[in-house]
């Protein structure tokens, strides 16, 4: 029996589908949404704001706000509640680290650009290969 489900959300449509899948299939389980924002760096997209901010924690909360709000909206549509966690780091690695506390992980996948795959890596692939528990990849 699946009692605890970790759902990775990054703000994409496919991540929303992953949460919907988890709510449909594992509605009786405790569902935790994990949003991972990149490590502060002057070289990396949204994380640049964190690196340059006087309040990095506030910047992290601001970046995660839309994802958190959307996760709660989707859960409300299902008349369910989800717990939400925000982490900082490399998404695939952080999801794998958290996975050991769950029975299964649900992630969305999208191809991304070649540059995304080379620089960032494929998060779903990292989770699938490294997770200590079963992983469902939703397209």
UniProtKB/TrEMBL annotation:
Natural source organism:
Halorubrum glutamatedens
Q: Where is the UspA domain?
A: 1-139
Give the Gene3D superfamilies listed for this entry: HUPs
* Name of the protein: Universal stress protein
What InterPro entries does this protein map onto? Answer: Rossmann-like_a/b/a_fold, Universal_stress_UspA, UspA
In the record, the note on similarity to other proteins reads: Belongs to the universal stress protein A family.
* Origin organism lineage: Archaea, Methanobacteriati, Methanobacteriota, Stenosarchaea group, Halobacteria
């Amino acid at each position: 029996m699946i009692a605890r489900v970790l759902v990775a959300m990054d703000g994409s449509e496919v991540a929303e589908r992953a949460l919907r899948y988890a709510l449909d299939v594992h509605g009786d389980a405790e569902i935790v949404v994990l949003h991972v924002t990149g490590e502060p760096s002057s070289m990396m997209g949204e994380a640049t704001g964190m690196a340059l901010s006087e309040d990095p924690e506030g910047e992290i909360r601001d970046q995660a706000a839309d994802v958190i709000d959307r996760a709660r909206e989707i859960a409300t549509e299902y008349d369910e509640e989800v717990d939400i966690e925000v982490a900082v780091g490399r998404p695939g690695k952080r999801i794998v680290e958290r996975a050991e506390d769950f029975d299964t992980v649900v992630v969305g996948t999208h191809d991304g650009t070649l540059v995304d795959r080379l620089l960032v890596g494929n998060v779903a692939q990292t989770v699938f290969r490294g997770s200590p528990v079963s992983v469902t990849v939703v397209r």
